[in-house]
Amino acid sequence: MFVSDKLIFIELQKTGSTHVRHLLTELLGGSLEGKHNAPTPEILAKGLPILGSVRNPWSWYVSLWTYGCQKKGVLYQRLIDPARWQTKGKQAAASDDEDEDDSPSAKPQAGLKKARAWV
Q1: Percent of the chain with pLDDT over 90
Q2: pTM, entire model
């Protein structure tokens, strides 16, 4: 989130917010108060205009996918971390006593192999 004396700019992932922040910094000064976070009550109390950027949802997903193909980003880390998959699988198995759960989250290695093959 970019904060200056004139405005607050909320940064949403994969919407060009880093570029916009750089431009705003050159034009207005200001500072970076975290990244991709919500404004605190103290910042909101300043009463400044709040801006953000949005993107076409299809373009956003393509950008997120491309970033993951470069082995970057939180989504990529979530997909390759077997511990996160195993946790989901244990929760699913514990909540389903009657039927065996054969979803990718219940079988993390199989799901991971399918995801890697697809990419």
Answers
A1: 22
A2: 0.54
* Amino acid at position 72, single letter: K
Count Cβ neighbours within 10 Å for each residue of 10-38 and write b for 16 or more, e otherwise: bbebbbebeebbeebeeeeebeeeeeeee
Q: What is the dihedral of CA 76, 40, 30, 59, to 10 degrees?
A: 30
The string of pLDDT tens digits covering residues 64-81 is 888 888 888 877 888 888
**pLDDT tens, residue by residue, 84-97:** 766 554 554 444 44
User: What burial class does residue 60 get, using C-beta atoms within 10 Å of its C-beta: 0-12 exposed, 13-18 middle, 19+ buried?
Assistant: middle
- DSSP track, the chain: -EE-SS-EEEPPTTTTHHHHHHHHHHHH--EE-SSS-PPPHHHHTT---EEE----HHHHHHHHHHHHHTT-SHHHHHHH-HHHHHHHHHHHHHH-SSS---STTTSHHHHHHHHHHH-
Letter for the amino acid at 3?
A: V
pLDDT of residue 46: 92
